[in-house]
Amino acid sequence: MSSESNSTKSKRSLVLVAVSCFLLGMGVESIAGSISKLSQPVGLDDVDVRTKYEEVGSPQNNITIHQMEEKEMDPAQYQTNQSSPKDHPTITLTQQYATVDDIIPDKLKSTYASHRLQFNVTTSMLRQSRPVIGNSQRMHAYLKKLQSQQCTTVLFLGGSVTQGHQAGGRQNAYPKFFMEWLNERYPCGTTGRHEAKFTHAPNSQSHFVNWPLVSGIDSFDLVFLEFNVNDNFISRSPHFLEDKSYIGTLKDYKSNWYFEAIVRRLLLLRKPDPVAIVVFNADYVGRTWATFDNWFDPLQARQTLFRSDQGALKQWLSSMYEIPVFSASGWMLPLASKMGMRMQFNKTNPYATSNWHVDACCHPRRNGHLILSMVLMHCMAEEEKSMQSVEATYLDVNGIEHDYSADDNPLLREPIYLSPDEEAMYVRDEANQTIIDFTDPRGEMLWKDVVVANEGWKWYADNRDKDKYGFIADNLAGGEHLALSVTGGKYGLVEISYVMSYKDFGISLAWLDDSHVNEKNKPLCATEFGDSLIAKKVTTIALKTIWDEKASVPTIMMMNSKIPEGEEKILHFCLTPHSDEANKGKENKFKLLGVRVY
Hints:
It is a single chain. The chain is an alpha+beta fold. The protein has helices at about 1-25, 30, 125, 135-145, 175-185, 205-210, 210-215, 250-270, 300, 310-320, 330-335, 340-345, 355, 365-390, 420-430, 520-525, 530-535, 580-585; strands spanning about 50-55, 70, 155-160, 195-200, 220-225, 275-280, 325, 435, 450-455, 460, 470-475, 480-485, 495-500, 510-515, 540-545, 555-560, 570-575, 590-595. Strands 8, 10, 11, 13, 16 and 18 form a six-stranded antiparallel beta sheet that branches. A five-stranded parallel beta sheet has the order 4-3-5-6-7, sandwiched between helices. Strands 9-12-17-14-15 form a five-stranded antiparallel beta sheet, with no helix packed on it. Strand 10 (about 460) and strand 11 form a beta hairpin. The chain starts with a helix and ends with a strand.
């Protein structure tokens, strides 16, 4: 009798497992391997969790997005009750189902063993990782290089997720795992290896400004663009050359404007061949979904178009340019939230946002980065299968599916967001520009010759990891003065990059003249600048650093004054005294990231 009872209980447990898996959208193929993982769930109480408001930035390189650490956070604040709510099933998982083994070389199978992954991964999940097929001509050209054993270079453009923040750095991030797979699956030469490259610009806008970081690379064959999280934090758009009306004030519009400019530049680039381009939606912002217990304001969350995720916009724009999109967030977020917000932040749900992210923003653990790598691996392998099956049968009679942007005389579609003047100036024009980059960790040797006066400004990395550099003035009394020698470019424009934050940052004044010393604005530099004084629009620009978003991010301000081409001017900065009205904190810091003259 006892044996029969145990058997009955066992069968009932298997039924419950199957029901739970069905509710998660798993097919029969994955239910067979879905029983154990939740016996030891990964929750926020397993790690040292802090409230981190961090956008873009590359912790292993030159960072232009800056992290603010607020206070130690009780992990329970970012997840709901530990047990599964009564009206929701308990999800129980076992080993990974072996449907993806065919894309993982034998040497790497132990890396992707079930106990090393964040959660169970199925073929049906990975099939959802390709929301936009796009035009495959460039990708097929790259795959043929791999098949012919050419050594290639892969460029990763992205922010803190790409750099492995909160996972232990690049050595634990998806680019590293993807390159291991690439080298194992497609060995090149006799002793050669495929190479990965990175930039220190974190989003579309920062790459727009620092484009030589990309165009200056001698050669690369494939580029991944991971901007769907970071582009949500673009605060200003000083590069519009026409009135965009109300729509131009929306961050979603700004995001896609800069993204389109980057896409068009990449389509025209030859390094030396047309570059294969992939948009990768790797992750999403978690905190905007945590509306329980007033953790995040529900009304404010509903007033965002995509809950701080630019993936949907990137996906649409990519489809218009026929650029392939690989997506992890496109299926991970629905899995996390499909049983309601309480389960989305419940420890017993292995797909929960609070299990996926280390912090309140957007950073997966190391075992999550393995899954991100699997998404790239799957999409590449599937494209190779498609290429091999289609080549023998495909015939584009009308030539309409040809990638005209890859021709010797490239033809691009009409811009969607950029005006003709913006296209001419920002995409087609190769005008010389001068960039003074204070975020480059190589340091003063790159820019020391342009500093003609310095009273109290210091170049250093002010974050905990000591890798986010800038020229910094920090003094409650203010008065610190910095002067840079700049020479006018074709358009006479001068733009300034600096950090905006939500507390403890102050205001710097900026102006142009012919003197190395601070003669013009010394009285103003000793004046507290609150919002009321800034509103008076003094001729000298006041660089305001405080905004409402709980994030520290780069922003850009354009100088009102222009410099005639070839003429030398002195660009001044001075920190003003601490102001209770403007600073929203007890400190008074200004962090200058760079200057561009063109």
